[in-house]
Amino acid sequence: MSITYFLHWSSKVNNMKTDNIKKIVLVGHDNEGSARLFDCIVSAYPDIDFILVISEGLYYGKSNTASILKLLREASWLFVLFRFVELVKYKIFGKSLLSLARKNGVNAIYTRDVNSRNIIEKIKTFEPDLLVSLFTMQIYKNEVLSVPRFGGITSHPSILPQYRGLEVFFWVLANGETETGVSVFHLTNKVDSGRVFEQEVVPINKDTSVAGLYKKITEIGGRLLVKGIHDIDSNQISYFPPKGDSSYYPMPDRASFRRFLKTGRSLF
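The chain above was modelled as a monomer; its predicted structure follows.
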């Protein structure tokens, strides 16, 4: 899916109206996924006031040095290289979160920790109705989640509680799954563990690449977040019962990357 296609789809869901949700805090990392989700939500709800919290660093609670050492110690270097190339492409050809925020008149602030006293006070001053997390490594604590009156929501690229964790669009391909999905759920202080109220199953084709699946689930995640905001606003939430056993995946390691290569699939 090209960026042009994504923006074309985004234009079809703009000018949605809300009665109860008037202010939203968006929290994202400066990457392609967060930028796409940001553009989708802000385009869909032009009458809502937004602020954007841009998270810095790789792993939550770790310095850049500690994060890099953790990646080199635990993750597949080839997968890390793939994600680095994707990030470079985004930095060169994509629109940064900050530029999208400025284009849409959204105030942006940077932080390493969304739970810091400074950020919580800024969010309180804004008096939001909802917090929406956009593909970030932040772990939210109860104090920040209690500020918006409707709490916080996010999207995750799997049918929860299966495939909780990191880079799961890679793991489903490495594990030979024939389908995956996207879930929108309420944020809690436990990773990927809130109640799911929007969900869509995504079939995996034989020629699906990691990059292709990432773009597809981001598109669906944006659409489901837009719908989720509407359903919260209109008090029309229906919850999905858990499907399957809970599973958690870390950054892809060397063994999983070798297994991925044996599937014959591509990264790009």
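The first helix runs from residue 3 to 11.
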